[in-house]
Design brief:
Layout lengths: L7 H21 L3 E4 L5 E4 L2 H11 L2 H8 L3 H11 L3 H6 L1
Antiparallel strand pairs: 1-2
Length: about 90
């Protein structure tokens, strides 16, 4: 939590620094994401990577926690790609 007596510019610099560290940590794991318009998570993940993680971690909640993204963001990512749970049993 930021100190209440910080100026807007100082607080903004700290937010930017935090964002950079979060991005570096995530990209070090081989996955990159960025916040887009409206704070929507843009997840750069292939379907093959998703299926591999899903086989290992079983639940979408566990996959989202591992990727450090929201479960809603993961569900939206799956919906945009037409991924269903039935597809996992076929692969």
């Amino acid at each position: 939590m930021l100190e209440p007596d910080l100026s807007y510019l100082e607080a903004n610099k700290l937010r930017i620094e935090l964002y950079k560290k979060e991005k570096e940590r995530t990209e070090a794991r081989g996955i990159s994401y960025q916040y887009g318009k409206g704070r929507r998570e843009k997840i750069n993940l292939t379907t093959e990577e998703y299926f591999k993680l899903k086989r290992e971690l079983k639940l979408d909640k566990n996959v989202a926690d591992f990727l450090e993204i929201s479960t809603r963001g993961l569900y939206q990512w799956k919906y945009r790609r037409g991924i269903t749970d039935k597809q996992l049993s076929k692969t």
